[in-house]
Amino acid sequence: MSDIGRQSLTDKAGAAMKPDSQKSNTEHMGDKIKGGMDSMMSSVQPNSEKSTSQQAGDAFSSNSNENQPSMMQKAKNAMGMGDN
């Protein structure tokens, strides 16, 4: 279950596992918008108010806004599925 205004972990995983080359422009745009909104909400919501699963998801996806690639993005890049 996700917190209000946040992407669920299954939505994040689904978007991350589909190769970028197989996504339409609409999917790319949607991923960027959803990811940006999720990152923003992650930053403004204190950890004390996040569900356990959302805290774990934030740790895994590096939603710390330090301009570092997440573990998921690093894995996609290593498999040749990322946009880098």
TrEMBL record:
Q: Quick one: where's region Disordered?
A: 1-84
Q: Which domain of life is it from?
A: Eukaryota
Q: Which InterPro entries match?
A: HSP9_HSP12
Polar residues: which segments have biased composition?
A: 1-10, 40-71
What Pfam families would the database entry show? HSP9_HSP12
Query: What is this protein's record name?
Result: Uncharacterized protein
Bias (Basic and acidic residues): 25-35
